[in-house]
């Protein structure tokens, strides 16, 4: 007899698997955490999630996406991603090199089969998972050039979309309307003069606009070793700093070693940032497994190491605040090396909870890159490298 399960029954079954995985992950990470008969104790107020395997809906136009390099959620809970069309046909298990030239625009040319057509690099989904915006790529009239390798995206509080790239000559970032009309460009192709150049960026990782000041904070990133701040309306340079709030230097400090003294210079990429309600700025030095915390003027406060035995890409890939945690007691970290989401105590940056595991099934991660919350506390995650995937995780508890 056919098993005609309802949508809610299917969701419940999928959620149970993810919750079980999360409990196992927490037990392994924190064996001394208090636990009851049902499993490890989740700290009060920490968000818990379960995957929605039916979100988003199938893409229109027979589209397919490549590596999901950036995620953001706008004020109407629409989910924005920037993906890498040139990776659509790349299924190598190892690290994917950046494009060498600007000539390779799309990853599905020539077409190899009736499936599929490469989607434009910027897509927006409504809360139900329908594509509502799709644009990006070189302007047909030459108004601007696109990126060699797409990376960050940010839907700012004023309804604009910021995008950037981390390709070899991506020394610019751009601001668009939601419909894809260019509003502002900072920098240009191949013009950066290093980490103290205030007229350009160099292979930017991500960005965020402070809603209180309308200042654009940029994790800059893959070529530079700094955080730089611009006026989000005019693009005017305001200030920048490097590790410990000092002027940045471009010298490579060498590979991360767990037992060595912390480097006085940020390694690359400087990959993530988050701005708290109290104005504190959290900046991730991904290969060093650390966050450094600053006042908005660049005054250094403290640092903390996450998962210190993590090597290679590192553990601190980004940072997000839960909108339902109005006191911002916790900060949430995507970790694409260990393929999990960490919850940290914001005052100490010590981990209090984690969940997730590597894999290709719904609710698992394959190079978890960035993530974003909607206003209801649901979580959206994007995967790069061989992941090529956007997932929604439903919020299971209030705050």
H/E element order? HEEEEEEEEEEEEEEEEEEEEEEEEEEE
Number of strands: 27
The CATH topology annotation reads as Neuraminidase
Return Rg in Å.
Answer: 20 Å
| Proportion in β-strands | 25-35%
**Helicity level:** under 10%
Q: Averaged pLDDT, please? A: 88
Profile the largest sheet: 4 strands, antiparallel
Q: Report the CATH C-level class.
A: Mainly Beta
CATH superfamily: TolB, C-terminal domain
- Walk across the major sheet and give the strand order: 3-27-26-25
Estimate nothing, just give the exact number of structural domains: 1
Name given to the CATH architecture:
6 Propeller
Shape: globular
Category by helix and strand content: mainly beta
Low-pLDDT segments, ≥5 res? 1-39, 91-104
Distance between the termini: 42 Å
Helix count from the secondary structure assignment: 1
């Amino acid at each position: 007899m056919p098993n005609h399960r309802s949508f809610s029954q299917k969701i419940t079954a999928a959620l149970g698997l993810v919750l079980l995985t999360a409990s196992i992950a927490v037990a392994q990470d924190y064996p001394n955490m208090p636990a009851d008969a049902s499993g490890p104790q989740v700290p009060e107020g920490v968000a818990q999630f379960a995957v929605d395997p039916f979100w988003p809906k199938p893409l229109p136009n027979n589209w397919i996406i490549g590596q999901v390099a950036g995620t953001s959620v706008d004020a109407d809970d629409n989910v924005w991603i920037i993906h890498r069309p040139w990776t659509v046909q790349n299924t190598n298990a190892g690290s994917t090199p950046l494009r060498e030239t600007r000539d390779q625009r799309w990853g599905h040319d020539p077409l190899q089969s009736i499936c599929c057509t490469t989607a434009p690099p910027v897509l927006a989904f409504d809360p139900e998972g329908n594509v509502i915006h799709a644009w990006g790529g070189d302007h047909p009239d030459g108004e601007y050039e696109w990126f060699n390798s797409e990376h960050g995206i940010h839907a700012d509080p004023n309804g604009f979309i910021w995008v950037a790239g981390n390709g070899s000559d991506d020394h610019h970032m751009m601001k668009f309307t939601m419909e894809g009309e260019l509003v502002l460009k900072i920098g240009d192709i191949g013009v950066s003069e290093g980490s103290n150049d205030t007229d350009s960026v160099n292979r930017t990782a991500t960005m965020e606009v402070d809603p209180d000041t309308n200042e654009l904070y940029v994790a800059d990133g893959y070529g530079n070793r700094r955080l730089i701040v611009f006026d989000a309306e005019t693009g005017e340079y305001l200030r920048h700093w490097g590790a410990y709030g000092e002027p940045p230097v471009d010298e490579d400090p060498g590979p991360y070693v767990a037992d060595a003294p912390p480097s006085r210079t940020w390694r690359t990429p400087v990959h993530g940032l988050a701005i708290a309600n109290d104005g504190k700025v959290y900046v991730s030095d991904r290969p060093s497994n650390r966050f450094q915390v600053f006042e908005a003027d660049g005054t250094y406060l403290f640092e903390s190491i996450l998962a210190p035995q993590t090597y290679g890409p590192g553990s601190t890939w980004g940072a997000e605040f839960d909108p339902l945690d109005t006191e911002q007691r916790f900060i949430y970290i995507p970790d694409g090396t260990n393929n999990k989401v960490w919850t940290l105590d914001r005052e100490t940056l010590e981990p209090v909870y984690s969940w997730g595991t590597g894999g290709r099934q719904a609710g698992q991660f394959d190079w978890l890159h960035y993530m974003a919350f909607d206003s209801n506390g649901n979580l959206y995650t994007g995967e790069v490298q061989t992941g090529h995937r956007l997932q929604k995780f439903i919020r299971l508890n209030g705050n």
